[in-house]
TrEMBL record:
<dbReference type="InterPro" id="IPR015424">
    <property type="entry name" value="PyrdxlP-dep_Trfase"/>
</dbReference>
<dbReference type="InterPro" id="IPR005814">
    <property type="entry name" value="Aminotrans_3"/>
</dbReference>
<dbReference type="InterPro" id="IPR015421">
    <property type="entry name" value="PyrdxlP-dep_Trfase_major"/>
</dbReference>
<protein>
    <recommendedName>
        <fullName>Glutamate-1-semialdehyde 2,1-aminomutase</fullName>
    </recommendedName>
</protein>
<dbReference type="InterPro" id="IPR049704">
    <property type="entry name" value="Aminotrans_3_PPA_site"/>
</dbReference>
<dbReference type="Pfam" id="PF00202">
    <property type="entry name" value="Aminotran_3"/>
</dbReference>
<dbReference type="GO" id="GO:0030170">
    <property type="term" value="F:pyridoxal phosphate binding"/>
</dbReference>
<comment type="similarity">
    <text>Belongs to the class-III pyridoxal-phosphate-dependent aminotransferase family.</text>
</comment>
<dbReference type="GO" id="GO:0008483">
    <property type="term" value="F:transaminase activity"/>
</dbReference>
<dbReference type="InterPro" id="IPR015422">
    <property type="entry name" value="PyrdxlP-dep_Trfase_small"/>
</dbReference>
<keyword id="KW-0663">Pyridoxal phosphate</keyword>
Length: 390
């Protein structure tokens, strides 16, 4: 007999189809009908679905063990690989299970290191389900700022600050709040507006904050191992104090990582007067680590070249089609992180995007029409290209 039940996951409810298997660039429904997948595990599946090597390694590891509750050889091997890729100052690594956990750990670490309370994030940014950065929804799920704050105590929001993105109004706000601000967290490239012209702003922000004793957290959960083998900090030669990773790092399985400098370590775990909680049942998961390592090991210069080639093809075809059909949209982004801007205006930040783009309803209709054409378009609009070409 069927029991009544309800799965509550509004983010997934809007999906147009149910898929039962996936391979490479394709998802397949119950009738084995293929759909091109532009969601790619929200950017996690950089090699495409069910990569043969990753699948084989997962099988082998699951036969050995799925859980040790110890730092095990798989985690050690992944850490060693990660240390070779990310900026060399970030020698301390804390594992957890998701991006949201990583940003939450990073925030705790920043508060413990500085003894300060407040955390600032940027309009249009997204750092997962972490209470401290939910002053807006990251511009991913519709237009205009949404305070997704029910269930979050007011006091948590009072310790959070929302900053204007890529905007010189920010410096005065930082000055005013410097005494309370433990850290500023920022996506080096925002999924809601992945534009490479952010470098001067990021560079100034890092220096400005560090001069005021505010820690800088780069949230590289999308950009890590994607925009460059060492992520955006490495690509731009910037020196954040703390960096969070996820998505690609887990090779399609749940995994999060917080990496941080010796200076932060000295003020936290090395300080005998401080006790900071981290860890958890699955915080050195050998299967996730194995999938992650099998993925990172395949990210060779040739792999990045394939991703670049597919990205250029995707953008050129779209922009050509818009032009040929007199449609005022453009497709653009940075590296393999792209989106359609449903406007022909150049966008500086998410507020401008909301102002210029066609309505959220029309964008939803666009996604529904794409499904009819056999293409699954991400609800948050972020298209992360994979290396897979089939
Ligand atoms: C930049 C960024 N940070 C954090 C997160 C949260 O990661 P997770 O969904 O694994 O909790 C995401 C997820 O989309 C993200 O894009």
């Amino acid at each position: 007999m069927n029991k009544t039940y309800r799965i509550i996951n509004p983010g997934y409810d809007n999906q147009a189809k149910q898929f039962i298997r996936a391979q490479g660039n394709f998802l397949f429904d119950q009738n084995d009908q293929p759909f091109i997948d532009l969601v790619m595990g929200a950017g996690s599946l950089i090699l495409g679905h069910s990569d043969k090597v990753v699948v084989e390694k997962i099988k082998q590891q699951s036969e050995k063990s799925s859980l040790f509750l110890q730092n095990n050889p798989s985690v050690q091997a992944l850490s060693n690989k990660v240390a070779q890729l990310i900026p060399c100052e970030l020698i301390n690594q804390i594992y957890c299970n998701t991006g949201s956990e990583a940003t939450q750990r990073a925030v705790r670490l920043a508060r413990a290191a500085t003894g300060k309370t407040h955390i600032a994030s940027f309009q249009g940014g997204w750092h997962g389900m972490n209470e401290w950065t939910l002053l807006d929804d990251g511009g991913r799920f519709g237009q205009s700022t949404v305070r997704a704050d029910n269930g979050i105590p007011k006091v948590a929001l009072e310790y959070s600050l929302l900053l204007p993105y890529n905007d010189d109004a920010v410096w005065q706000i930082i000055d005013k709040n410097a005494k309370q601000l433990a850290a500023i967290i920022i996506e080096p490239l925002q999924g809601s507006n992945p534009q490479p012209d952010i470098y001067p702003f990021l560079s100034k922000l890092t220096e400005y904050c560090q001069n005021l004793g505010i820690l800088v957290i780069f949230d590289e959960i999308i950009t890590g191992f994607r925009v460059d083998p060492g992520g955006a900090a490495s690509l731009m030669n910037l020196k954040p104090d703390i960096v969070t990773y996820g998505k690609v790092l887990g090779g399609g399985l749940p995994l999060g990582l917080v990496a941080f400098t010796e200076q932060v370590f000295a003020k936290t775990f090395a300080d005998k007067n401080k006790q900071i909680l981290t860890g958890g049942t699955f915080s050195a998961n050998p299967i996730s680590a194995t999938a992650g390592l099998a993925t990172l090991e395949q990210l060779t210069p040739q792999t990045y070249a394939k991703i670049k080639g597919l990205t250029s093809f995707f953008l050129n075809e779209l922009n050509q089609a818009f032009q040929n059909n007199n449609i005022n949209f453009h497709a653009d982004g940075s590296g393999s992180i792209n989106r359609i801007y449903f406007t022909d205006q150049k966008i500086k930040n998410r507020q401008q995007r909301d102002g210029f783009e066609i309505s959220a309803e029309k964008q939803t209709k666009f996604r529904a029409l794409m499904v009819q054409q056999g293409v699954l378009w991400p609800t948050n609009g972020i298209v992360c290209m994979p290396a897979s070409q089939k």
